Amino acid sequence: MTLIFATHNQNKAMEIASQLPFSVELTTLSELDYHDEIPETGSTLEENARIKSEFVAKKFDENCFADDTGLEVESLNGEPGVYSARYAGEDKNSEANMNLLLKNLEGLENRNAQFKTIISLFWEGEYYQFEGIVKGKILKERKGNKGFGYDPIFQPDESDSSFAEMELGEKNKISHRARAIEKMLKFIKNY
Ligand code: IMP
Question: CB of 7 closer than 6 A to ligand 1?
């Protein structure tokens, strides 16, 4: 069975591919030779995930899922949230995003945060949605050089390591995206 993952992010594709059973063949946009950016014009993670999955499912006439993820920081009223990718500007620079977040948290005691992933799935013409959350805190400085995005400054409550210090398998056991994908796979298996 072929399932399109509506993303250009190969890191995410790698994380998810390692969770899939052999019977599911994951195809990404690059593999379909589609390189355009899909506009994320929604104001919530749910809207953005749905926009991406619906657009691609219709374009390629295949089952398709998309994810949208936000880092929600308690003492910043849930920011950067849906704006996590563009927190420090339109060029979606992870280093600049982390610098801005560390700066905005300077002097604040409460560093609790959570990653939230929404997966939207267009499956046999119907739309489904799955959520995954991991709670943790924002470190005062970067730790580790694996992963991507905000990984060096996020430490999940279950661990003494940041996401960027973890091997893929370790991150996949607890990550927001892995938890949402787990729910989607359960749905597909039982369909
Ligand atoms: P998007 O869902 O790809 O738009 O991601 C939103 C923002 O969150 C981007 O800045 C990503 O780099 C970041 N992000 C998404 N997933 C992760 C993750 O697993 N670890 C760290 N940062 C992430």
Answer: no
Distance CA 12, CA 27 (A): 12
Q: Just list the catalytic residues.
A: 68
Q: Is the peptide bond before 156 cis (omega within 30 degrees of 0)?
A: no
Nearest to 85 by CA among 53, 38, 40, 126: 40
Name the residue with tokens 């002097």: 107
Q: Does 1 have pLDDT greater than 90?
A: no
83 lines ligand 1 (CB under 6 A): no
- Return contacts of 84-88, CB within 8 angstroms, 24+ apart: 84/149, 84/150, 85/40
Span 129-154, average pLDDT: 98
Q: Which amino acid is at 101?
A: L
Q: Look at the chain and count its residues.
A: 191
Where residue 48 falls among pLDDT bands split at 50, 70, 90? very high
| 156 has pLDDT over 90 | yes
Q: What domains appear along the chain, each with residue ranges and CATH number?
A: 2-190 (3.90.950.10)
| 117 CB near ligand 1 (under 6 Å) | no
Give distance in angstroms: CA of 124 to centre of ligand 1.
Answer: 28
